[in-house]
Specification:
Oligomer: single chain
Strand content: 5-15%
Structural class: mainly alpha
Radius of gyration: 51 Å
Order of helices and strands: HHHHEHEEEHEHHHH
């Protein structure tokens, strides 16, 4: 790809302005867009400016388009340097843009570029007679007919170095040329004669029906049955015993919900699962309230287990003496005598203070 730079100042014109006819055309393009969206017309206006200037965009034309659309000059310059459809330096009378993307590259675009380089020189330079200049560009959208090139506004496809050379000779001489494919094919048809998808049975359904019939016959032959007789008997049976129509087959059937859950019928002598506390798929599980505390048995293990007494008066289990091992089922040792707390002596409290303030009365002693 060539560098996208403006032409040297020596080749730049001093000014640019649309002709009255092109200025009227530009106003029509701008009017296609709503107020505040005039910048959307930047590409059509640049294209018209390039066409008016002999096939390339000078700096003054870019600035004139920017002023007319109310855009900064740099924004329009960004558009002009991005698209290869805009030439930023003088071009020949016939500007040849050779596609160099992968499909064209593998089909002969390298040979085309080599031929142009030998005949015209490096890309971007105009031939001494002023007729030709060339440039490598990205995909031009004719991949099926690669390799191809765009000369001014026309596409020329299925090119070879020889056909491209003849084409350039005819253009230079002013002779008429044929646009499109240079080997005579129409649009993007196969390169040679059409050899595929010509059997009419591929489109009328008979090919599929013949395959199905052949598979059925081969299957009946493997089982030893007569294909013709078996099919006739199957057709006669279907005619005598037609299937009932099922308009609701495959559809969800809507029904009103019952006011109460349905009662499942259990066979005689069989206890329903719900009576056993098991969940049945056709009934709702109902939680049964408990009438008393549930007792949990002691863990079954080889260690000694002593339940903690509920009543504090029964005492608490006391650990065995150091160095002994409790035996399973052993009776817990009795706890030492209980105290009422009178032995405790608060810090800084004398006996006189205790006599003066005995504190709030405790619960009445049991009679």
């Amino acid at each position: 790809m060539a560098n996208r730079r403006l032409a040297p100042l020596s080749e730049q014109p001093e000014s640019f302005a649309f002709t009255p006819e092109n200025a009227e055309w530009a106003k029509g393009q701008i009017a296609k867009y709503p107020e505040g969206r005039q910048a959307s017309a930047v590409i059509p206006l640049l294209w018209k400016a390039q066409e008016q200037n002999g096939g390339w965009l000078p700096q003054k034309a870019i600035e004139a388009v920017a002023d007319q659309l109310g855009m900064p000059h740099i924004r329009v310059l960004e558009v002009a340097t991005f698209y290869t459809m805009f030439a930023l330096e003088p071009v020949g009378r016939y500007w040849i843009q050779v596609c160099g993307t992968a499909p064209c590259d593998v089909c002969g675009a390298r040979e085309l570029k080599k031929y142009l380089h030998e005949r015209l020189g490096p890309s971007g330079h105009v031939s001494p007679d002023g007729n030709f200049s060339w440039l490598e560009v990205e995909c031009l959208g004719a991949c099926c007919n690669a390799p191809m090139a765009q000369i001014n506004h026309d596409y020329f496809e299925d090119l070879t170095p020889e056909s491209l050379g003849k084409l350039m000779d005819d253009l230079a001489a002013g002779r008429p040329v044929k646009v499109g494919s240079q080997i005579g094919r129409t649009s993007s048809e196969p390169k040679d004669a059409v050899t595929t998808l010509q059997d009419e049975t591929l489109f009328d359904g008979s090919r599929v029906g013949a395959w199905r019939k052949r598979f059925e016959e081969e299957g009946l032959k493997e089982t030893g049955a007569d294909a013709t007789g078996e099919k006739a008997r199957a057709d006669a049976s279907a005619a005598e015993n037609p299937k009932a129509a099922r308009p609701d087959a495959g559809r969800a059937t809507e029904s009103k919900a019952a006011a109460a859950p349905a009662q499942a019928q259990s066979p005689a002598g069989v206890e329903p699962k719900s009576d056993k506390g098991e969940v049945t798929p056709d009934r709702t599980t109902v939680a049964v309230p408990r009438t008393g505390p549930e007792t949990v048995g002691a863990p079954q293990s080889g260690r000694s287990y002593t339940p903690t007494p509920v009543d504090p008066a029964d005492g608490r289990p006391v650990a065995a003496a150091k160095g002994t091992t409790p035996e399973a089922g052993a009776v817990p040792a009795n706890a030492p005598g209980k105290t009422d707390g009178s032995q405790a002596k608060p810090v800084g409290v004398t006996n006189a203070d205790k006599a003066a303030d005995k504190g709030p009365p405790g619960p009445k002693a049991k009679q």
